[in-house]
Known about the structure:
Layout: H1 6-13, H2 38-48, E1 57-59, E2 67-70, E3 78-80, H3 88-96, H4 105-113, H5 116-128, H6 137-152, H7 160-170, H8 173-184, H9 188-201, H10 208-220, H11 224-237, H12 242-255, H13 266-278, H14 284-288
Antiparallel strand pairs: 1-2, 2-3
Helix pairs in contact: 4-11, 6-7, 6-8, 6-9, 8-9, 8-10, 8-13, 9-10, 10-11, 10-12, 11-12, 12-13
Amino acid sequence: MPGGGRGARRGTARPGTGARRARPGPRRAGSPPEPPGRGAAARRELLDAGIEPIAALWATGTRAGDRWGCFDLPCTCGGLLPDAASTTLGVTAAVRDGRAVLPDRAAVLAPLDSGAGTRRRRARLRDTGAAPARVGAATGTALLDACLDEAAASRLVVDDRLALALCGALDVGDVRDEALRRCLGPRAADAEQLWAVLVAALPSPQRAHPLALLAVCALLRGDGALATGATERALTERPDHVLAGVVAASLHGTRDPRSPAARWAGPGGLRRLLTAMLDPSAPDDTAAR
């Protein structure tokens, strides 16, 4: 662990020289991995790189419950690693980045599946056969922005009538384009809140549009689990959904760097691709980066 000052700055400027990984070996509990003296060797290498370490530590892994301790020191510091999400540092980092600290993937996807009351609401809308209201592009965009204003002020409430009106608005291609622009712009957080509410409110297959838009917002902020779940559900609702297919391709590119979709992989790749889709006149080199 490097200390502050010039050595730390030098270490930061030289990737790969500031950390050493010790291969774990079968030792008695509380003892460092093999071979003896590895801590001293790591310390020398760090000093040679201009980094003055505060301490040399070993660990059998990086998961909760793995053993750790100090190398070559009589202090007997050590123990078991805690769950990173439960530490002050982990929670602080999550709050700083605007991320929820959730225990598992099921908890991440829970908002997509909703509770019994929400499912009854969707069933009621489906069984009544109420059709989404037909609106023009200007009216639909104005309705969209009004809802985003309400979301920004923490006043967003979507009743059945408003849910159907928004559903009808998203059936208009120009309104969907504007919705996508909101996902890419400074109102992305407000837009994600609106899509999540619509996903909970609308029955199949009407919720395919908000599911795909929710997937866009989630992936753009780096939440791959939620993006994957929303994309899978959107494609289940409508297998030919274009936007959901685009997000699915971006997610596939992150898993297979050899895939043609790799150029559009991840948050940055998806942003470039969607920007190019919304503005076909953009220079080719901008779209391909």
